[in-house]
Amino acid sequence: MFVDGPCGAPAQDYRNYDILFLIGLGTGASDEYVIYTTLTKMQITHFTLSLSTLLLYFLITFTFSSTFFSSTPSTSASNNHNEPQDLIHSSCIHSRYPRLCLRTLSNYVGPTNTTLDVAQAALRVSLAHAGRASKYLKTLSAAAPDSSGQSPNRKRQRVALNDCVEQMADSVDELRRSLEELQHLRPETFRWQMSNTQTWVSAAITDGDTCLDGFVSDGGDNNGKVKRNVKRRVTDVAMVTSNALYMINRLGQGDARKGKHRPDGGSGSKN
């Protein structure tokens, strides 16, 4: 059934509004008023739903765009952050003690962006370990009893401790000089400076071996305990120093000619 709307509005099909018509009869409202009012409300509802859908679309689009564009720099930053770790891994993988190398250099807080940075970092780690070992040996030597009236083995232990103190002090000095040399590399003297550094680091390793050679192995329980403690400290220094020497040798080979470091006084960062 079609009924004209109020004020000459187009005829409307109100067959779907039988319930509203009955409600209209019950309340005294006219058929035309009920149908027209219902249609008006439906148009408003339809407009409201369309507007809500449009707003929801824009909201979803904005949220997706914001998430996408904000995540792109983070991904890039994450990749940049991983680059030093990748260089450390590629540098350590063929070192003499790769696990120790990865552990010590991954915890290093300084720059590791170039092969020169990594070589300097390895030397700093070695120097720190040697410094702690030197301090330990000095403390151990100072606490050792006077050798007068002691057995020959005890006397040799005391002499060996004193020699170790000197040897480790030499190691610290040689490693420090090596680090300073790497911090002041120059293109015109690069090979000579690298040779100096390799010589000093190798000497630091030899100092550790000489230190341990001074201890006898049959000096009783106390002497054996001292030797074990000294050996643990000195061996630790020798291992990290061997890794540092590998990094220095690597720096002086193909990587130097490829320009992966800056032999112009630094690695691009203050040390």
Automatic annotation (TrEMBL):
Q: Where in the cell is it found?
A: Secreted, Extracellular space, Apoplast
- Cross-referenced InterPro entries, in alphabetical order? Invertase/methylesterase_inhib, Pectinesterase_inhib_dom, PME_Inhibitor
Region Disordered: start-end pairs: 251-271
A single cellular component GO annotation: apoplast
Q: What is its main location?
A: secreted
**Where are the membrane-spanning stretches?**
47-69
**Superkingdom of this protein's organism:** Eukaryota
Q: Residues in domain Pectinesterase inhibitor?
A: 83-247
Which of UniProt's keywords are assigned here?
Apoplast, Disulfide bond, Membrane, Secreted, Signal, Transmembrane, Transmembrane helix
Mind telling me which Gene3D superfamilies this protein's record contains? Answer: Invertase/pectin methylesterase inhibitor family protein
| Any GO MF annotation of the entry | enzyme inhibitor activity
Please report which protein family the annotation says this sequence is part of.
Belongs to the PMEI family.
Q: What is the name listed in the Swiss-Prot or TrEMBL entry for this protein?
A: Pectinesterase inhibitor domain-containing protein
Question: Which organism does this record belong to?
Answer: Lupinus luteus (European yellow lupine)
